[in-house]
Amino acid sequence: NAGVTQTPKFQVLKTGQSMTLQCAQDMNHNSMYWYRQDPGMGLRLIYYSASEGTTDKGEVPNGYNVSRLNKREFSLRLESAAPSQTSVYFCASSEFRTASYEQYFGPGTRLTVT
Amino acid sequence: QKEVEQNSGPLSVPEGAIASLNCTYSDRVSQSFFWYRQYSGKSPELIMSIYSNGDKEDGRFTAQLNKASQYVSLLIRDSQPSDSATYLCAVNTGFQKLVFGTGTRLLVSP
């Protein structure tokens, strides 16, 4: 049981290049999330998917697109990377426990845009 | 005003002491609260969740919630150097979404 996995672990892009960050979970969770983490800013929600076939914007969606390919996989795409998108990206999935949804995180992708 | 506020620290405690980490939140309707531990260069790891007023204990960790004061805290008893990390407070704002504080860095010295 690998939990939440993300690829790649590290990536360097030039401004204007595109790329897709991949995320998969094997815990049969319905909900999945993409966050970015920047120094002093904490974790900020980019997009989330409450179930297969649905996606919704979070706090900072501009410059990103997502695809919920199936129940296991949720990808994040940068169409035209900008230096402001240099960050650590975390994928998470969640399940309902007791009274709320607990989120579990993948190992992260460190992205640098030059 | 930020939705979830934490002192950035660092909070320095000697080994064996009690570390007390605090968090305040602004949304009165929040019902679920979480503490995550994040080691440098790693991903957040869920360590505690609390939903009702009062204390919840799990091993060396105790989460405390006071909804009237909009305050949640995490106590770590018998602190160890391996507890040195950043602790993130997260609050459920509805429909499965969490809002995170910026974290408190804890340093436990041998």
Characteristic terms for this protein:
heterodimer, A: 114 residues, mainly beta, four-stranded antiparallel beta sheet, B: mainly beta, 11 strands, 0% helix
- Number of discrete helical segments of chain A: 0
Mean pLDDT of chain A: 94
| Class from secondary-structure proportions of chain B | mainly beta
Morphology of chain A = globular
Computed over alpha carbons, the radius of gyration of chain B is 13 Å
Describe this structure in words.
The complex is a heterodimer of chains A (114) and B (110). Chain A has 114 residues and is mostly beta strands. Helix content of chain A is 0%, strand content 57%. In chain A, strands 2, 4, 5, 6, 9, 10 and 11 form a 7-stranded mixed β-sheet that branches. Chain A has a 4-stranded antiparallel β-sheet with strand order 1-3-8-7, with no helix packed on it. The radius of gyration of chain A is 13 Å and the shape is globular. The mean pLDDT of chain A is 94. In chain B, strand 9 (85-94) and strand 10 form a beta hairpin. Chain B is mainly β. Chain B starts with a strand and ends with a strand. In chain B, strands 2, 4, 5, 9, 10 and 11 form a 6-stranded mixed β-sheet that branches. Chain A binds chain B through residues 31, 40-45, 48, 50, 58, 90, 94, 97-108, and chain B through 8, 31-32, 34, 42-46, 49, 51, 88, 90, 92, 95-98, 100-103.
